[in-house]
Amino acid sequence: xxQGQSSKFPRVKSGIPGxxxxxxxxxxxxxxxxxxxxxxxxxxxxxxxxxxxGIKIGEKGMIITPSESSEYLKRxxxxxxxxxxxxxxxxxxxxxxxxxxxxxxxxKSIDVDPVEFLINFRRxxxxxxxxxxxxRLFIDDLTAFFMAVEAPFKIRSLTDDxxxxxxxxxxxxxxxxGTAFGMNQFLEYGADSATMLNRExxxxxxxxxxxxxxxxxxxxxxxxxxxxxxxxGMAVSSLSPYP
Length: 243
Ligand SMILES: Nc1ncnc2c1ncn2[C@@H]1O[C@H](COP(=O)(O)OP(=O)(O)O)[C@@H](O)[C@H]1O
Ligand SMILES: [Mg+2]
What we know:
Blueprint: E1 11-12, E2 27-28, E3 32-37, H1 43-56, E4 61-65, H2 70-81, H3 85-91, E5 94-98, H4 114-132, E6 136-139, H5 143-147, H6 152-168, E7 172-178, H7 184-190, E8 193-202, E9 205-215, E10 225-230, E11 233-236
Parallel strand pairs: 3-7, 3-8, 4-5, 4-6, 6-7
Antiparallel strand pairs: 1-2, 8-9, 9-10, 10-11
Helix pairs in contact: 4-6, 6-7
Adenosine-5'-diphosphate (ADP) binds next to helix 1, helix 2 and strand 10.
């Protein structure tokens, strides 16, 4: 891509103040974007705000919750920021797929072969995207699903299959990834962009931080920024945690 051309492609605004300027204006339409961080760094808040913002501007959102129940996510976002995901679901602008729902018959079990489980999960995602046709998708913490797959090459090809399915539906997605199981690199490798959330220790204080590790086809800001979370949601500061 010639220099300066990337900003001419249509972008999907993240809805996180200060973030889009780190990635030259927003996500590319129809891409898979990972957000990685350890527990409590703000992954779920980031992706929920991406969905909530999209719905505010008239788009249709879908959330898939592989690791926690959707009730928990809804309660959390309501009490933290007043985002009424249950209400949006009733209005039809948000669709939540709870993978822990027994009706989907996709329960995680030690008896199920992990590769087979992931293949079934990919089919479920494909079916739901086809049914609902959302413009924004959020999958919360995929890591646990891949943990039981031992061979790295299998993780790579299962990731490629899943991300390929998502891309072919033209939805713009944010997939969150925990760091606890050490497989985040495999998932980031297959994604179109990768954003990292951290905590930095400055003296006796912990400060939230964010940087963009990669984004295909875009200029990115190569700097670490302070990340703020307040009752209004998440925002990327123009400041670095290291003055
Ligand atoms: N209204 C708020 N003001 C400030 N911080 C908040 C607010 N609501 C939640 N938080 C903080 O946001 C963080 C939640 O991050 P979360 O996205 O759930 O993390 P992860 O998904 O990475 O585990 C918690 O550390 C919590 O204290
Ligand atoms: Mg989370």
